[in-house]
Amino acid sequence: MPKVEHQDSTVLTDDELRTLDAHWRAANYLAVGQIYLLANPLLTEPLTPAHIKPRLLGHWGTSPGLNLVYTHLNRVIKARGLDALCIWGPGHGGPAVLAGSWLEGSYSETYPDVSRDAAGMDKLFRQFSFPGGVPSHVAPETPGSIHEGGELGYSLAHAYGAAFDNPDLLVACVIGDGEAETGPLAASWHSNKFLDPVHDGAVLPILHLNGYKIANPTVLSRLPETELDELLRGYGHEPIHVTGDDPRQVHHAMADAFDRALDRIALMQRTAREDGVSERVHWPMIVLRTPKGWTGPAEVDGKPVEGTWRAHQVPLAAVRENPEHLRQLETWLRSYRPEELFDVEGRPVADVLACVPEGSKRLGATPHANGGLLVRDLPIPSLDRFAVPVDKPGATLHEPTRVLGDLLEQVMKDTSGRRDFRLVGPDETASNRLGAVLNASGKAWQAQTLQVDEHLDRHGRVMEILSEHLCQGWLEGYTLTGRHGLFSCYEAFVHIVDSMVNQHIKWLRTSRELAWRAPIASLNYLLTSHVWRQDHNGFSHQDPGFVDHVLNKSPEVVRVYLPPDANTLLSVADHVLRSRDYVNVVVAGKQPCFDWLSMDQARAHCARGAGIWEWAGSADGYREPDVVLACAGNVPTQEILAASALLRRHLPELAVRVVNVVDMTRLLPREEHPHGMSDFEYDGLFTTDKPVIFAYHGYPWLIHRLAYRRTGHAHLHVRGYKEMGTTTTPFDMVVRNDMDRYRLVMDVIDRVPGLGVRAAAVRQLMADARTRHHAWIREHGTDLPEVADWTWTA
């Protein structure tokens, strides 16, 4: 599309131009007031230092551009009766979005004490970036938001996540040119290859080029327009350019750009939905170039400010101390002519509100930004249909994630009409043994297809792209707007989204404190292809540390599960898919592993979170154990049970208790986590004075951290992954990290008082087995037959 020639454009009538400009000026005034003013919100008296906040925090530079977008979105929403959501990507754009929601009344409806009058304006200003108030960025406290504006890079992914399976929703997404430099945002441009014009809504990216970051120019703003056009067209968009610094011209151009973009969107959706046109859509986008800090001080202390990086945060930094800065601030505020915008009681006048939609059409009132109002329970079928039969422990083997895949296939089938469940992952659905879901839904794909391709589907709900950032962003946007999903990922590479999950956890924790935000479906991770079975891929694929990262976060929100077999994975999956307002991390194997528990036993064990497997040890319920063998994770569980069998064979007089942990947060004290055990419960399982040999799936020091306050901590010895990785055999991975059955038996002998002398021959036998192992794998390339063919026979 050609560049908008806004000098000659007359899209708006004089009345429309007047009212849009009034709304925009009012929003600018409110944005400045939030950054600076502690009192005197309507400037009914000359400004004095006493009216100024003691600490000036906030970001002015992006605010006038965001206000312009808010104003013009109001216009088209009202004129076209649209359901719309806006993702505000530029970091710390809070003043603008708060201003827009206050003007439309949604803020006062959400927070009645911040009324839409002078008293409420005073509170709006005071609370901004103030102790006990609200953040300077768009946050959970902001009506109409689903996007935390503090960390950059995720706005466009969130926008597409919100649009998937929302066919009547327009999702506008303002992308700051600083944010556009991030890797996740660069990948997000490819999301349009996954947007189904039939079943999904539309995303309208608005790339706001104001030229600068904190202290540097931005890359895209310095590209020649032809080069930028080629880039954006290469991504599959049709850019519409709006450029200028004259408000009258820019209002006309912006109105024209929105009308053209929305007309094209309506045409593309209509031809796909009614005419069956299946060619890939090239969606419109807007490129908005306005000065950074537009309408603010042009110059401060002899240095240019408007249109430069100096406008990024607080253009006048010494207002309380410097009379000239105070004078400039008052001149700046009065330049918006607030007496024309607000009546004597501080209420917005009719012209300001002329463009504002009504009810739930307002950006701050849309239920799509409060997804808990829209979410429905998933239709999860009975687990007994998918459970594997277990007549006795360890007699059969199954691939746990393949069994889970059958359950997810049914969930996908049962949501085919309502379309509110998606499976996302970076090109690993089949690799992670979840391929059964493809019987119910293909993989979303709008780009070219070839005869050799399999399972690609223009209307699919399985999402695969080799970007963990996009998978995370899509699923966040999807769940925040009232739907459900599961993120399947190789364990080692989920670290790529460490920072993103951190932000989402913060969002959920804050949302829990806001009575008006309804609980949303949990964000669920399935981590497989895990550290102990990445023997073929080697060291680069071996990292179980995501669990450590998550367990550092808000205990109200995080949950971590390590189901040891197929039926426990089914039970855990049933729980997490039904849950609300959590981040659930499930670590499970995809390779064949032993079936230990029947479905009923699995349900009971998962409900406990941690429990004694009496059949696995040699200490009956009336005999105090000499040692506790504990385990968490499918491979550690197998090694612990193999060690228990060796102890029963070689040291039958030893009383051994086996404890399996599914819910890692059970190890925490009850005071530190809702799932934590009391000291009484913990001591009952692990004793207060007996050695505990704990085989753990991840880094061993996590177990120590979780249990350091327990009475028996001095007797706790943990084996786990300690960065001894390579390309080798499966059993050699556990040997290299000293978590193998032979080392565990040696640990028991070394730590049970008096056993070292009596069982010296047994210890030597275990050490010899490890020596035989090393020689065998180097000659044969496979594990010892006694390991490879081992079964539970106790």
Automatic annotation (TrEMBL):
<dbReference type="InterPro" id="IPR019790">
    <property type="entry name" value="Xul5P/Fru6P_PKetolase_CS"/>
</dbReference>
<dbReference type="Pfam" id="PF09364">
    <property type="entry name" value="XFP_N"/>
</dbReference>
<dbReference type="InterPro" id="IPR018970">
    <property type="entry name" value="Xul5P/Fru6P_PKetolase_N"/>
</dbReference>
<dbReference type="InterPro" id="IPR005593">
    <property type="entry name" value="Xul5P/Fru6P_PKetolase"/>
</dbReference>
<feature type="domain" description="Xylulose 5-phosphate/Fructose 6-phosphate phosphoketolase C-terminal">
    <location>
        <begin position="590"/>
        <end position="792"/>
    </location>
</feature>
<dbReference type="InterPro" id="IPR009014">
    <property type="entry name" value="Transketo_C/PFOR_II"/>
</dbReference>
<protein>
    <recommendedName>
        <fullName>Probable phosphoketolase</fullName>
        <ecNumber>4.1.2.-</ecNumber>
    </recommendedName>
</protein>
<keyword id="KW-0786">Thiamine pyrophosphate</keyword>
<dbReference type="Pfam" id="PF09363">
    <property type="entry name" value="XFP_C"/>
</dbReference>
<comment type="similarity">
    <text>Belongs to the XFP family.</text>
</comment>
<keyword id="KW-0456">Lyase</keyword>
<feature type="domain" description="Xylulose 5-phosphate/Fructose 6-phosphate phosphoketolase N-terminal">
    <location>
        <begin position="12"/>
        <end position="373"/>
    </location>
</feature>
<dbReference type="Pfam" id="PF03894">
    <property type="entry name" value="XFP"/>
</dbReference>
<dbReference type="InterPro" id="IPR018969">
    <property type="entry name" value="Xul5P/Fru6P_PKetolase_C"/>
</dbReference>
<dbReference type="InterPro" id="IPR023962">
    <property type="entry name" value="Phosphoketolase"/>
</dbReference>
<dbReference type="InterPro" id="IPR019789">
    <property type="entry name" value="Xul5P/Fru6P_PKetolase_ThDP_BS"/>
</dbReference>
<dbReference type="InterPro" id="IPR029061">
    <property type="entry name" value="THDP-binding"/>
</dbReference>
